[in-house]
Write a structure and sequence with these properties.
- The structure holds two protein chains of two kinds.
- By secondary structure, chain A is an alpha/beta fold.
- Chain A folds into two domains: 2-79, GMP Synthetase, Chain A, domain 3; 90-158, no CATH class.
- Chain A is built from five helices and seven strands; from the N terminus they run ααββαβαβαβββ.
- In chain A, α1 (2-14) packs across α3.
- The N and C termini of chain A lie far apart (40 Å).
- Chain B is an all-alpha fold.
- Helices cover 65% and strands 0% of the residues of chain B.
- Chain B has eleven helices and no strands.
- The chains are: A alpha/beta, B mainly alpha.
- The A-B interface holds A 48, 50-54, 81-86, 110, 112, 115-116, 134-141, 145, 159, 161 and B 33-34, 36-37, 39-48, 50-51, 118-119, 121-123, 125-127, 129-130, 132-133, 136-137, 140.
Chain lengths: 161, 249
């Protein structure tokens, strides 16, 4: 019974999607940090992308619903801050899904160089590297607004963080 | 009062009050992109404040949660920097206030991420990344305003002259902090001054703006002596919890 419990909990929690970027699951994003057993209780750890990310409460509620739907009633969900979330935790699968969804995935590693140096962001529609930043901040904390100079489409860029 | 509680509360209060000030721009910013940007920065700051208040409540051990600390204290009990409670004014004032704060906050959080207090270090490690964006945003705008038209230059210089006297408080310490600094828990803000000066002066130079020289520095926020503006801010921010205590949704 308990041998399958962790796997069932992991599968249920991994399928929860980000309410603001429904193309990605919380596992793709690296928001889901741990699923483990403490006796017969499932312990789940999640971490916010940004300090003020308003999606965290929704994500928690949805994990709860997913666990209950999988027949799991004894669980604890904790938010952990350390280590701080970084876009380096975005899975390859996650990056591919982001681009397909029309959001440019973070360019490179989340180093100081990426923050303050020149980032090359490619257009998720036509692939051109000739893009310009319209605004540092977009529709959610984790995105910036860009525009493609070749196909002229504006698009979201998932900031390197 | 335990120094760690006081210290955490100071950081939380500055983040909350600045976050609230920026939220006052929602629906009023000069551009849609700026409405989003100021809203995003406000969200980061309020998120930092929530984590800090929750920790302060735990440290205090009196059962006060983040809401009790944010909504049920009066102006004299707030410990934020005077700089962050200054009214939004025009866009140049808001941007200048943000630059003076963020140029400090960025190296501050980076240093606090090395704190021997694991919770403060974890909160700081997140805030540090966010403050890097806040600093870049404010810096780019101040350069655009200062090095823009005669009108935008004038607005930016007036904002700088008005806010500069509040910058000194960023680097002050008192007995509460001295003990925590010695223990490796708190950051000595005076040590961050050269970094702050370099960042600010480089941006001002590019913006063709000049910091006022030999200004008298105003302080008092750390001991609860605030400008009249904080009371007005709290009247609006705390209204719901004052009128309907314990309201939740």
């Amino acid at each position: 019974m308990s041998a399958g419990l962790r796997e069932r909990a992991l599968a249920a929690a991994s399928d929860v999607v980000d309410p603001e970027i429904p193309a990605l699951t919380i596992a793709d994003l690296g928001v889901l940090r741990a699923v483990r057993l403490a006796g017969d209780t499932v312990e789940i750890e999640i971490t916010p992308t940004y300090s003020g990310c308003p999606a965290m409460r929704v994500i928690e509620t949805e994990i709860e619903a997913a666990l209950r739907a999988a027949g799991i009633d004894k669980f604890r969900i904790a938010t952990v801050l350390s280590p701080a979330w970084t876009t380096d935790w975005l899975s390859e699968e996650g990056r591919r899904k982001l681009a397909e969804y029309g959001i440019a995935p973070p360019a490179g590693q989340a180093s100081r160089r990426a923050l303050f140096g020149a980032e090359t962001v490619s257009c998720p529609r036509c692939g051109s590297a000739e893009t310009e930043r319209i605004s540092e901040f977009g529709s959610t904390a984790c995105k910036a607004l860009y525009r493609c100079k070749r196909c002229a489409e504006p698009f979201d860029y998932f900031k390197c963080h | 009062m335990a120094p760690l509680f006081d210290y955490t509360l100071r950081l939380a209060d500055s983040a909350l009050i600045l976050g609230h000030r920026l939220s006052e721009w929602l629906g009023h910013a000069p551009l849609l992109e700026e409405d989003l940007a100021l809203g995003n920065i406000a969200l980061d700051l309020i998120g930092e404040a929530r984590a800090l208040y929750a920790y302060a409540g735990t440290v205090e051990g009196q059962g006060r949660d983040e809401d009790a600390l944010a909504y049920k204290r009066d102006a004299g009990q707030f410990r934020n920097l005077l700089l962050v409670e200054q009214p939004n004014g025009d866009f140049a004032v808001t941007i200048t206030r943000q630059l003076l704060y963020s140029a400090f906050a960025h190296p501050f959080w980076r240093a606090l991420a090395q704190s021997r207090d694991a919770t403060l270090a974890a909160i700081a490690a997140k805030a540090e990344k966010e403050s890097a964006y806040h600093l870049r945003h404010a810096g780019e705008w101040l350069i655009r305003l200062g090095d823009g038209t005669a009108e935008s230059h004038g607005s930016a210089q007036r904002a700088l002259d008005a806010l500069w006297p509040y910058a000194g408080e960023l680097f002050e310490t008192d007995a509460v902090e001295a003990a925590l600094i010695a223990e490796g828990i708190a950051v000595d803000p005076a040590a961050l001054r050269p970094d702050w000066e370099r960042t600010v002066q480089a941006i001002l130079a590019e913006a063709t703006l000049a910091a006022p020289a030999g200004t008298w520095m105003q302080s008092g926020g750390r001991s609860g002596r605030h400008s009249e503006h904080l009371g007005h801010l709290l009247a609006s921010m705390q209204f719901l919890q004052r009128a309907y205590p314990g309201a939740s949704w």
